[in-house]
Amino acid sequence: MKNTIKKGMLLGFIGIICFSLTLPATSIAVPYFGATVVGLGRTVIAAILVSFIFFLKKEALPNKRQFLSLVIVAVGAVLAFPLLTTYAMKSLPVSHGAVELALLPLATAGFAMWRGGERPSKRFWISSITGAITVLIYAGYLGLGQLQTGDLALIVAILLLGLSYAEGGKLSNELGSWQVIAWAILIGAPFFMLPVGFSLSSHMLQAPIEAWISLFYLGVVSQFLAYVAWYGGMSLGGIARVGQIQYLQPFLMIGFSALFLGESITWLTVVLAIVVVTCVMIGKKSPVIKKESHHKNSVIKR
Q1: 147: pLDDT strictly greater than 60
Q2: How far apart are CA 96 and CA 101, in angstroms?
Q3: pLDDT tens column, 247-288
Q4: Which of 8, 39, 133, 225 suits 281 as a labelling partner, its CA being 20 to 30 A distant?
Q5: Cβ(14)–Cβ(248) under 8 Å?
Q6: Is the pLDDT of residue 60 over 60?
Q7: Residue 295 binned pLDDT confidence (cut-offs 50, 70, 90)
Q8: Positive or negative CA dihedral for 110, 235, 221, 136?
Q9: Total structural domains in the chain?
Q10: What is the pLDDT of residues 186-240, one digit of tens each?
Q11: Range of the domain at 221
């Protein structure tokens, strides 16, 4: 069991590293391709890759119940989050968005209780709330000020993605991690092709190489491969516990922003990162009660 949890945590960490490059890549790509192409076009790119994989593997169709769950995943991970974060990155700095996304673990844990049948312990919630307060302190330090339209877009994106994470993590036990996001991509892509097609223009061909790399990173890695690792990690390690790793995401994002966008890193970032890592480790060792199919609760020792 311990090896399974460790593997789940490792896959989750790989997924978070990949996700942490999403906002910096979006910030680079949006000025050249626009919000629609970057927000929805990444799904079209991923759908081409997924269609090729499905053709080779001849995957069976999901049943009706699984399809309804996949629609929830598609709404959050394929439609709402890419589009809303792309919209937010038109007006907000990456560090701003990174801090707000640190609230995602709480959203994921909350939806895990509802959709995944998990009951995190009191110690788990204390570590989660401590981590959330830490990133809010960091938000105050950055002087984020009053909520803007971009902030509201990020909050909605966080709620819908948290639901998508919980639903996808649960469904990964049945379909497999890569199949969940792959089917969600195929469900969403047909609705995106028309608006993306109308938004294409010849001047996009003049975009620099870093903008093209960012766009294809968003399509291949952020929209597909990162979710394969992330849903696989939640399936093995538990939705709520692996979801704790998301507290590292804002600091990874800020680090990548400094590397690729020239943003500075302060001493407070390092100190709060240590606090957040501590919260993640405490949450990782906390017991999680999972509701079994025979309607009895059992504590999973992880």
Answers
A1: no
A2: 9
A3: 788 788 888 888 888 877 777 767 777 777 777 667 666 666
A4: 225
A5: no
A6: yes
A7: very low
A8: positive
A9: 1
A10: 999 998 888 898 888 888 888 999 999 999 999 999 999 998 899 888 888 887 7
A11: 2-300
Task: Find tokens 């709402």 and name the residue.
Answer: 80
Tell the residue number behind the tokens 């769950």, with chain if given.
Answer: 69
How would DSSP label each residue in the chain? -HHHHHHHHHHHHHHHHHHHTHHHHHHHHHHHHHHHHHHHHHHHHHHHHHHHHHHHHTPPPP-HHHHHHHHHHIIIIIIIHHHHHHHHTTTS-HHHHHHHGGGHHHHHHHHHHHHS-EEE-HHHHHHHHHHHHHHHHHHHHHT--S--HHHHHHHHHHHHHHHHHHHHHHHHHHH-HHHHHHHHHHHHHHHHHHHHHHH--GGGGG--HHHHHHHHHIIIIIIIIHHHHHHHHHHHH-HHHHHGGGGGHHHHHHHHHHHHH-----HHHHHHHHHHHHHHHHHHHS-EEEE-TTS-EEEE--
Return the minimum-mean-pLDDT range out of 17-31, 68-82, 142-156. 142-156
Burial class (CB in 10 A: 0-12, 13-18, 19+), 101: buried
Answer yes or no: is pLDDT of 33 > 80.
yes
